[in-house]
């Protein structure tokens, strides 16, 4: 791990086996593609992340080859896990951006809320509260394929909706107090292949999916807006991490218990070649956050450098976000590069030589068509 | 002869055309008989019912049904005879007369057969079995054989009866070892006096002794024999055989005993008339017990005309007492045919007799039979029965011409006679119906006085109001249910869908019901035959589509339960309690349909109310009509061809190697496709979980509208109150009798009888 590199924390909140590992892998793959031809690269920054991601990729490839795709067949998360991805250009690691994504079992949420449980759980609790991004990973097939009333009743329990609402509420409060730092909630449905027609699927049920997500997370959105009117950005960002599959059927078990089980099965579509869709929107969203707050910070510094200096000192004591992110901007970006980035983000990405330039360029790139802004986070 | 032939063919054709109507009549009378017996029991229930007044009871108890039943049985018997007459495929002439008058000779002359088939004899009577002979291109005889039981009843029993012996033995073995009286002294005293007893006993014992010669034929079957082999089946043993038997002590063979009936086909030499049959009718004056009845039976069912042969031999050259008896018997057989001379021809056999005797007989017949007026009562023909040409010219031609002219008249007389008999019975039935109606009118006694009438109207209106309130509460409840996505009914529906879904999956897992191994074996066999996998896959997918639907239609069972629950609730909780005793003893759907009937059949019918109930009962919930159309699309994907997303061309969905491993792979892929389709169907069905509740709500709402809110509702509730007041409000209007449900049962039974009478 590179101590000097800037750190950006993302907490993933979702039950096991929803597809968090897949999502991280997809972000990695999608970003790699984006960076091809530039001197920049993205890769696991430690051995355990690397091992985890490779293991996952191998399992997936095996399943697709056999054309039998059973979402329960892969081992899910039972302990917490920190994915470390680093984005940088060779030789300039300290000016790179280090993405930390925390995955922990959904069942830990009550302990995390109350600071109870093991040391590991307490560390997770701290991570979540400091995270700039909450990634709520949702199983789209769970929501779309539940049909009997028992199954529908089980959805909330499987997704830990109530606990999620509480933790989001706490997080929002903390973020609100730190109004100078980025704050983003991404509602990220995965296993969406059967509901979009833009990635090899034949039926477009995206509107139905969105409606259903709203029904589930509407309350959570209300909570955020009530606690923090207008600062926190909320995005809806459906991702296909596999792409070339189609929902087939699902097994449900323990429906009337506190821990119901849902296990979807998929058929492999067409040639069985993996086709990630929507994953790089996550990196775009992160970049947009960084740049937006960076610009705000500069403006404020110019307006009232004294107060900002004071604030900076306070953050230094807290080892706050801006201190840790400062590395990226250690290298000043040329105004020219910023201008190019605003005019043509894609060219800017290809021409980026530094992480700062890349982030600048990414921040100017438009989201994919699937993304919806639920709340823009721009105070009106 | 051609003209006569054409007429005969036409007559037979006309007869057959009438058969359907005759059969309908028979069925109608049988039905009427049953309906009358229902009426009788309804009447007797009403009569015993406590609220029926004494006078009505009295009148009802004087009704007599059983004579009518007998009359109907007679009518049916006549109709059956008519049917037998009209279903015959030939025109039949019977030949009758005492033994040795030349009957067999006459038959030989007409048919061209000889002694081997139609034995004649100068001494002993020789014709043992009655035969029917038909002109035909074939030469053969068809024997209908007895089994032991029919032999026992038709042959043995009459002898036993004639000798006052106990009933004929039940089995062949018992008959073989039966100890018959050794001589007449062992017979009853009365029988000892009868001169005929001795030869009858002798014959019976001969039959027993000869058993080994015919027991093999007691099969009950038909047997076709050549004409050359026929004799032993139709004739008594010859004199030589009897002699030989006497000498050797071995009984003469008697295969004819096993024969019930013989039908001979052969080409006639002169009378080449198609559809002509000649029937040998032995029996007049014969010894065999109850022979005369047999004779009559044969005549009634089998012949259109009888030639009664008479031969003026020594001592028979006059019209004797027995001849009179024979013609009387023929009168009975004539039935509804009005004229003797239409049905019976007297034939004087002139062969081998001297002219003086012929003259004597001719004169005697003219005087004592025809009252001195030729052909007044009977036509008289003269022929030499041994001369085929003479028989044809002088006996057959006149008879056939007569039949061609007169048979239509005779047929009409038989038909009209039967009809007259039937209409007589109809009148008697009408009379009973009239008596019942009169009794019921008397029973209704005085009408209610005006204050009671008012109170009855109040009760009726109140009943209607209370029903209206309960029903509207019920509808509110159903409305709520139809808009809730929970509740026990909802859950039961989901469970039924899940049950069906689990069944589908179990079936898929089990190699689509064949067992995995067998399925793969079948698949591989088809690969080998077709040299591709597409044919098998296509067939299987079609089958899978059908089967998945079949599994899901298993939820109909749930619907049945749901409807039963609805009927029970409506009938037992809402409707029956308001109708006093009217629906007592019925529950659920049965109670509703009783109500429906009672309303329609009330003395003052309440059609609107009845129809409301009937429509409610017609409500159906089922997978095929209500759900399948909505979920069918879920199965669309089960096609063996898919569109290539890039080229848009159709291509086979499954491409597997044509080997056992390929078969296994095909099973896996098809199973996965089938599972997905089943899941989609299940999902679509879950989305329709409201349908049953919506359908039920709509139906009950419609019922409420039709029952309570229709224009005639109030009027019909009052009518119903008048018709059933003592059932609905028992005791409330005591002292005044009204038609009750019991009375209605009688009225309905009367209606049924009338309806059949009019048909
Ligand atoms: N069809 C489909 N399956 C997915 C997707 N994301 C994850 N999965 C599957 O869901 C299962 C659990 O995924 P994993 O990433 O291991 O879940 P985790 O326990 O949350 O890390 C695996 O079988 C994945 O292949 C997706 O977007 N589409
Ligand atoms: N010569 C002559 N003999 C006859 C005639 N009719 C019958 N017989 C004889 O009378 C006997 C009895 O005749 P059959 O036809 O057997 O009389 P059935 O008992 O009435 O059948 C036989 O021996 C015949 O040959 C006839 O017309 N002419």
Automatic annotation (TrEMBL), chain A:
| Cited Gene3D superfamilies | P-loop containing nucleotide triphosphate hydrolases
Entry superkingdom: Bacteria
- What's the protein name? Uncharacterized protein
What is the scientific name of the source organism? Gluconobacter vitians
Automatic annotation (TrEMBL), chain B:
- This protein is called Dynamin family protein
User: Which organism was this protein described from?
Assistant: Gluconobacter vitians
């Amino acid at each position: 791990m590179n101590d000097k590199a800037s750190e950006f924390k993302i907490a993933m909140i979702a039950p096991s086996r929803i597809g968090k590992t897949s999502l991280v892998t997809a972000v990695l793959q999608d970003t790699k593609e984006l960076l091809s031809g530039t001197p920049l690269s993205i890769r696991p920054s430690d051995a355990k992340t690397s091992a985890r991601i490779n293991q996952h990729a191998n399992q997936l490839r095996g399943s697709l080859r056999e054309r039998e795709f059973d979402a329960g067949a892969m081992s899910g998360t039972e302990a917490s896990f920190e994915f470390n991805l680093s984005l940088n250009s060779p030789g300039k690691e300290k000016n790179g951006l280090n993405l930390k994504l925390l995955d922990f079992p959904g069942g830990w949420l009550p302990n995390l809320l109350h600071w109870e449980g093991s040391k590991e759980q307490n560390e997770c609790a701290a991570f979540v509260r400091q995270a700039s991004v909450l990634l709520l990973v949702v199983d789209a097939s769970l929501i779309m394929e539940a049909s009997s009333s028992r199954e529908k009743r089980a959805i909330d329990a499987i997704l830990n909706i109530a606990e999620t609402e509480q933790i989001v509420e706490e997080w929002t409060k903390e973020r609100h107090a730190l109004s100078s730092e980025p704050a983003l909630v991404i509602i990220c449905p995965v296993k969406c292949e059967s509901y979009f027609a833009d990635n090899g699927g034949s039926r477009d049920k995206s509107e139905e999916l969105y409606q259903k997500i709203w029904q589930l997370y509407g309350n959570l959105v209300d909570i955020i807006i009530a606690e923090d009117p207008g600062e926190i950005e909320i995005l809806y960002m459906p991702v296909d991490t596999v792409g070339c599959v189609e929902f087939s059927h699902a097994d449900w078990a323990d429906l009337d218990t506190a821990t119901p089980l849902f296990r979807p099965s998929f058929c492999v579509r067409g040639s069985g070649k993996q086709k990630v869709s929507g994953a790089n929107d996550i990196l775009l969203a992160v970049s947009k956050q960084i740049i937006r707050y960076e610009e705000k910070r500069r403006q404020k510094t110019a307006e009232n450098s004294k107060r900002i200096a004071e604030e900076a000192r306070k953050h230094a004591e807290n080892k706050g976000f801006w201190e840790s992110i400062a590395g990226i901007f250690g290298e000043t970006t040329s105004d020219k590069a910023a201008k190019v980035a605003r005019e043509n983000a894609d060219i800017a990405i290809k021409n980026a030589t530094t992480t700062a330039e890349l982030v600048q360029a990414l921040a100017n790139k438009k989201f994919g068509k699937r993304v919806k802004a639920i709340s823009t986070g721009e105070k009106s | 002869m051609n003209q006569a032939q054409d007429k005969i063919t036409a007559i037979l054709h006309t007869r057959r055309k009438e058969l359907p109507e005759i059969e309908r009549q028979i069925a109608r009378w049988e039905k009427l008989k049953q309906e009358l017996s229902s009426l009788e029991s309804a009447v007797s229930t009403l009569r015993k019912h406590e609220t029926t007044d004494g006078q009505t009871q009295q009148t009802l108890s004087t009704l007599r049904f059983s004579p009518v039943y007998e009359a109907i049985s007679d009518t049916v018997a006549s109709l059956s005879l008519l049917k037998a007459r009209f279903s015959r495929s030939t025109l039949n002439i019977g030949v009758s007369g005492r033994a040795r008058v030349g009957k067999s000779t006459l038959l030989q002359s007409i048919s061209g057969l000889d002694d081997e088939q139609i034995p004649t004899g100068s001494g002993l009577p020789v014709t043992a079995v009655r035969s029917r002979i038909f002109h035909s291109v074939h030469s053969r005889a068809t024997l209908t054989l007895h089994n032991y039981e029919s032999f026992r009843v038709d042959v043995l029993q009459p002898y036993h009866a004639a000798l006052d012996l106990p009933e004929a033995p039940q089995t062949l073995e018992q008959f073989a070892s039966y100890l018959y009286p050794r001589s007449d002294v062992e017979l009853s005293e009365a029988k000892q006096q009868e001169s005929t007893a001795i030869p009858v006993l002798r014959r019976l014992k001969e039959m027993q002794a000869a058993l080994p010669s015919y027991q093999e034929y007691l099969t009950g079957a038909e047997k076709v024999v050549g004409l050359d082999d026929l004799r032993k089946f139709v004739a008594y043993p010859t004199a030589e055989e009897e002699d030989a038997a006497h000498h050797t002590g071995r009984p003469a063979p008697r295969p004819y005993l096993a024969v019930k009936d013989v039908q001979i086909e052969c080409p006639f030499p002169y009378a080449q008339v198609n559809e002509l049959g000649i029937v040998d009718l032995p029996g007049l004056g014969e010894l065999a017990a109850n022979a005369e009845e047999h004779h009559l039976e044969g005549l009634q069912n089998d012949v259109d005309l009888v030639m009664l042969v008479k031969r003026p031999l020594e001592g028979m050259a006059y019209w004797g007492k027995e001849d009179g008896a024979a013609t009387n018997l023929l009168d009975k057989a004539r039935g509804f045919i009005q004229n003797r001379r239409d049905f019976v021809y007297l034939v004087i056999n002139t062969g081998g007799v001297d002219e003086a005797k012929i003259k004597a007989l001719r004169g005697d017949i003219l005087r004592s039979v025809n009252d001195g007026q030729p052909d007044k009562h009977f036509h008289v023909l003269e022929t030499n029965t041994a001369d085929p040409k003479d028989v044809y010219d002088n006996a057959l031609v006149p008879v056939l011409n007569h039949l061609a002219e007169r048979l239509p008249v005779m047929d009409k007389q038989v038909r009209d006679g039967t009809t007259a008999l039937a209409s007589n019975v109809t009148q008697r039935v009408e009379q009973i119906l009239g008596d019942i109606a009169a009794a019921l009118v008397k029973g209704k006694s005085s009408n209610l006085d005006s204050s009671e009438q008012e109170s009855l109207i109040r009760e009726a209106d109140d009943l209607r109001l209370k029903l209206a309130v309960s029903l509207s509460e019920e509808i509110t409840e159903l409305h709520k249910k139809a808009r809730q996505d929970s509740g026990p009914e909802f859950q039961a529906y989901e469970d039924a869908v899940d049950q069906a879904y689990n069944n589908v999956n179990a079936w898929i897992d089990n190699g689509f019901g064949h067992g995995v191994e067998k399925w793969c074996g079948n698949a591989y066999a088809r690969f080998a035959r077709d040299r591709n996998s597409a044919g098998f896959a296509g067939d299987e997918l079609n089958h899978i589509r059908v089967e998945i639907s079949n599994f899901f239609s298993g939820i109909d069972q749930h619907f049945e339960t749901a409807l039963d629950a609805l009927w029970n609730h409506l009938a037992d909780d809402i409707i029956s309690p308001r109708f006093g005793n009217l629906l007592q003893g019925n529950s659920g759907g049965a109670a509703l349909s009783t109500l429906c009937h009672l309303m329609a059949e009330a003395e003052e019918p309440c059609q609107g109310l009845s129809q409301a109930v009937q429509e409610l009962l017609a409500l159906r919930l089922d997978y095929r009509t209500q759900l399948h159309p909505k979920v069918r699309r879920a199965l669309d994907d089960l096609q063996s061809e898919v569109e290539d997303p890039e080229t848009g061309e159709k291509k086979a969905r499954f491409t597997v190697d044509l080997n056992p491993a390929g078969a296994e792979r095909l099973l896996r892929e098809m199973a996965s496709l089938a599972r997905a389709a089943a899941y989609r169907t299940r999902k679509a069905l879950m989305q329709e979980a409201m349908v049953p509740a919506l359908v039920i709500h709509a139906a009950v709402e419609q019922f409420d509208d039709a029952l309570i809110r229709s224009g005639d509702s109030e009027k019909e509730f009052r009518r119903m109150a008048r018709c059933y007041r003592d059932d609905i409000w028992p005791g409330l209007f005591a002292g005044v009798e009204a038609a009750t449900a019991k009375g209605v049962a009688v009225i309905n039974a009367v209606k049924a009888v009338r309806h059949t009478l009019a048909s």
